[in-house]
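DATA SHEET
Item: assembly model
Revision: 1
Owner: S.N.
Input lines:
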Amino acid sequence: MKLASQQFGSGPDVVLVHGLGANRAFWYPRLASALVPQFRVTIYDLRGHGYSEVPPSGYSTTTMAQDLFDVMDEHGIAKAAVIGHSYGGAIALEAVATQPTRFTHLCLMDTRVQRVQPQLRLRDIDALTVFERAVAAHDGGDWQNDPEIGFRFLEAAARCVVDGVDLQVRDAFTPFGEGRGAKRAARAWLRLLDDTAARNEFITPGVELEHLREIGTRALPCLLMYAEHSRALRSGEQLRELLPQAQWRRVAGGGHFFPVSHVAETLTELQAFLA
Amino acid sequence: MTTASNELLQQLTTLLDEFTQDWDREDEAPMTRDTKLLADLGFESIDIIQLVVAIEEDIAHRKVAFDQLLMSNGRYVDDLSIGQIADFLVPYTTAN
């Protein structure tokens, strides 16, 4: 299967894994370019995203962790620091649990872990952003009782873009982009949900908690970054217990997409962690 | 414009025609030196990144320091014209 990927710079390897509904432009140019002077940075599009292939199935973190290994193999990466945002972090966690010796560092950014947080409800979120509120109002569905509010939001946001609905409000980061190309990205997300097994596979639990505890017994440096307005805080707090060696950081004022909205803070933490 | 830049413009136009053929572009006006990636062709960030890969593979046949083109005065540029890319690529194709 073809996974679109790119590599920049030279030095110790760093692989960046984006979250659902995004693509490798989530990291590049801003964060990735800033790491390039010291590291060899690899970015790729998850299956079903960006310029990677869209197979009919294989969207669980378990399968997508194998994709991560395939990208590492293709680029001749023996060992890397892996950094994942959101679902990309769940993929990274799965990969580290599967083949720990291939990783030098693990950084998770606002990652929800299915095993410890099997549902994501509206009450898990301290406050919706202005854009999320506008999407919810336009969607008109029962957001209070939806067990997968994150997916509900992404899908409703994509339908707004495809239908040409301008909600008049913006967050620092708006899924699917702003320009005319946003329609292509939003359509691609809806096709992924409607035409493949992704919708169900995305919520398939990954690695067992015992395996996560094993990561905790290793000397692997871990950094857990969670937004002040995180929707995955329960995951983060449980990961702190499972990975006692992990550094714990909250991004002041940040929401789920803080790697884009709070680039400078994110970069400062990353550079200190990887140094 | 130099001959080298105009030749690159031709190559880029062919590449971009192929690149955007499935995009249902509203504006089907022929591409010129002034055609802009975001404003005229409906590019998103990911498309620029992928175009860089295509240029490296099909036109430059080596790595290109695109950061220099994408950055201006410490900021990322808002848009790029095909002519700007062609001019930028001249040293990469003439130094071979």
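QC remark: Chain B touches chain A through 18 residues (CB under 8 Å).
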